[in-house]
């Protein structure tokens, strides 16, 4: 039956076969969706408009129509030029769905010969008001029964959702993602539209239940999507806020530790500088005495060295004179008187030299004694620090912020020497590890 229908639809009104013409692809077009390789569908604007009007005629019913036009195979590409559409009348309704009948095909064949001679059946259209554009088993049966050509397609329209979809049969339904709408002086389709006007029913003047339900569902979906978006944004914001708080908390803990370490370092420095100042202050007097004593000792050493030098010179002179006497040859008796005189004069000279050396050494000793007297006068007895205890000293003291053991000792005892006593009394090992709020015993 399919071959009979197809062959019959491909002849004109005079029952003569129309010679095949080379298909001219339109240029004034608008692309809908994405065009894939292998098939190109061109839908004339009048046909597109009429099919949507026909689909909206009564949205409580599903409708069928046949697509009319021209087909051409070019190498590996199929081109379908849809230039007309015919309503599906005398349709049989089974289980709420329309089915083509023999009477419906007689009507379609008659209208094709009248308005679209020399054309081919390129496929069919089915409306699914509010049910989307999914191809089902119903389409499988209808297509297998009435449309046996490989190039014949299915066009599904949802008039409520205002959506449409082309399908191509390749052992199963394959979506055609896009097509072209072209504009042309389509007088044949224009005449068919004038003779088969789609009259809007009174039912469509008011919103239908299906339309209202669809709009409610659409609004609900939009609200749900908006709520999900808000929840996602709030979740992201909360995660970022939590991360910021975590980083700030870690930084705060680190800063507190740094402050404690800085406080301990300051306490250590204060204690060290206080002890150093006390030590320097105590060592100043001792240093003065030590310097003066060292100076006197140096001067005494110089005096001893001078004295030793003088004695050594005198002994050397005497020794030389004795050696000369031993070396001199024995003189004659006649010269003994002269020799004695010479010896007496030499002895006198030696005595004079010794006296001069003794005078010099005495003068140097006097000078050393005079220089040492002022240094002895400068020496002062070591000053002992007396601890002055405040009669109102409490037995206990609570450490305040900024306190250390040095200033506590100085506050109550007017000296820093009591730090060790405070440490020993309170069993403390490190004077720097004291904290505000702790109570200590005062000696």
Question: Tags for this entry?
Answer:
443 residues, alpha+beta, Cytidine Deaminase, domain 2, Membrane-bound Lytic Murein Transglycosylase D, Chain A, nine-stranded mixed beta sheet, two-stranded antiparallel ribbon, 9 helices, 13 strands, 52% helix, elongated, disordered N terminus
Can you describe what's shown?
The protein is α+β, with helices and mostly antiparallel strands and 443 residues long. It folds into three domains: 2-206, Cytidine Deaminase, domain 2; 284-327 and 334-378; 396-441, Membrane-bound Lytic Murein Transglycosylase D, Chain A, CATH 3.10.350.10. It is 52% helix and 17% strand. The protein is built from nine helices and 13 strands. The chain has helices spanning 2-9, 45-55, 102-115, 137-146, 187-195, 209-327, 336-378, 405-413, 419-425, and strands at 29-33, 39-44, 64-74, 77-87, 92-94, 97-99, 120-127, 153-158, 163-169, 173-176, 178-182, 396-398, 439-441. It has a nine-stranded mixed β-sheet. The chain has a two-stranded antiparallel ribbon with strand order 5-6. It has a two-stranded antiparallel sheet with strand order 12-13. The longest helix is centred in the middle third of the chain and has 119 residues, at 209-327. The radius of gyration is 65 Å and the shape is elongated. The chain starts with a helix and ends with a strand. Mean pLDDT is 77; it is low at 1-18, 201-207, 328-334 and 366-385.
């Amino acid at each position: 039956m399919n071959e009979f229908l197809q062959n019959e639809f491909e002849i004109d009104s005079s029952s003569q076969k129309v010679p095949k013409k080379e298909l001219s692809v339109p240029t004034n077009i608008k692309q809908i969706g994405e065009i894939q390789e292998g098939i190109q569908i061109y839908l004339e604007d009048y046909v597109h408009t009429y099919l949507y009007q026909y689909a909206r005629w009564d949205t409580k019913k599903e409708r069928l129509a046949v697509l009319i036009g021209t087909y051409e195979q070019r190498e590996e590409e199929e081109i379908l030029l849809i230039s007309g559409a015919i309503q599906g009348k005398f349709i049989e309704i089974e289980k709420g769905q329309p089915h083509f009948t023999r009477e419906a095909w007689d009507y379609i064949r008659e209208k094709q010969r009248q308005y679209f001679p020399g054309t081919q059946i390129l496929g069919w259209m089915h409306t699914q008001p509010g049910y989307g554009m999914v191809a089902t088993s119903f389409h499988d049966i209808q297509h297998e029964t009435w449309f046996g050509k490989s190039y014949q397609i299915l066009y599904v329209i949802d008039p409520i959702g205002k959506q449409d979809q082309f399908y191509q049969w390749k052992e199963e339904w394959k979506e055609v993602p896009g097509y072209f709408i072209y504009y042309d002086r389509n007088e044949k389709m224009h005449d068919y539209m004038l003779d088969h006007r789609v009259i809007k029913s009174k039912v469509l003047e008011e919103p239908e239940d299906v339309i209202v339900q669809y709009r409610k569902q659409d609004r609900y979906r939009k609200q749900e999507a908006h709520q999900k978006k808000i929840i996602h944004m709030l979740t992201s914001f909360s995660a970022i806020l939590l991360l910021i708080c975590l980083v700030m908390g870690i930084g705060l803990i680190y800063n507190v530790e740094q402050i404690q370490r800085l406080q301990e370092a300051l306490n250590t420095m204060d204690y060290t500088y206080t002890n150093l100042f006390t030590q320097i202050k105590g060592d100043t007097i001792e240093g003065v005495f030590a310097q003066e004593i060292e100076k006197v000792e140096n001067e005494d050493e110089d005096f001893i060295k001078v004295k030793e030098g003088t004695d050594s010179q005198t002994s050397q002179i005497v020794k030389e004179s004795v050696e000369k006497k031993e070396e001199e040859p024995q003189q004659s008796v006649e010269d003994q008187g002269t020799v004695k005189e010479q010896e007496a004069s030499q002895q006198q000279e030696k005595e004079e030299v010794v006296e001069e050396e003794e005078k010099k050494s005495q003068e140097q000793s006097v000078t050393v004694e005079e220089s040492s007297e002022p240094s002895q006068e400068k020496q002062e007895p070591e000053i002992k620090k007396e601890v002055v205890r405040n009669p109102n000293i409490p037995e206990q003291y609570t450490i305040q912020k900024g306190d250390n053991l040095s200033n506590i000792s100085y506050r109550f005892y007017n000296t820093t020497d009591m730090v060790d006593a405070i440490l020993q009394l309170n069993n403390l090992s490190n004077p720097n590890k004291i904290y505000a709020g702790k109570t200590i015993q005062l000696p």
